[in-house]
Amino acid sequence: MRKIKIKFSDESIKFLLKSQRQELTQHYIYKRFIPRIDDFYNQRLLEMIANDELTHHNYLKRLTARDVKPNIFKIIWYIFMSYVFGISFILKLMERKEMYGRIRYKKFRYKVDEVGRIIKDEYWHEIKLLDILNEAKIRFLSSILTILNDAMAGITAILLGLTMVLMDSRLIAAVFLSIGFAVAISMISSDMLKRKKERFEKKTSLKMILLKGIFYIITIAFLIIPFLIIKNPLIALAVAVLLIVFVIDVFNFYISVVENKNFKRQFTETILLNLSVGTISLVIGFVIRRIFSINV
Fold it and tell me: How many other C-beta atoms lie within 10 A of the C-beta of residue 230?
């Protein structure tokens, strides 16, 4: 492979090596997804994108005159996430990466002519990835997670308040689960009534209504696990709060990718809201326990 003799600063070489590794890593990620795409046309598109990434890597290798290895951890992580969230979500995430790739390369546009072609390729990849991914499917799930994300403040408040009132792990788990089922059933019933009043073309789908309730119950069931295995309610609560942070993290990560929002900002706002509401509920629960002299 012919080397391109251009003098770069140490910072530029570091950037080029990082980009070279990213291109190679993305090549392998796309290659792993090709057999899992149903449509033959979309398979060919993804194969073209994968080959372009390898071409970019080879060109950057001519600039750096160094070999790099793909990020194996990132490849495994993306494959794992594709089974959790679906390929459509990962392709949406990759589409964002292509956009950032274009921005990343712009600083080299006037130093190396070939980089202009890479920028054009990255833009083409963005367009084609949007063609391949099932936008309706991921937006459907995103809308459910957005509703649940908003409901997390209420879930956190109920759990913290119950813990301070009851101070018994198994009792907290039982009551919290009962409340969770009641809220989910109420939520489904309310949405069904709203649906009857909606115009036909704007009707909320039954699937969304039922999935929202199911996801809500699953979230509640997930959060009672610490109270079923840890006898001390305060330690169980601490673990549950960590789980709440994890759930909020997952919800906001998915929503930020699909809706093209700033993840850090959205995550921070949601966490602060949940902690604020939870703290108030904790204090109220403690006061109620004292006023009613509850000794469970």
Answer: 16
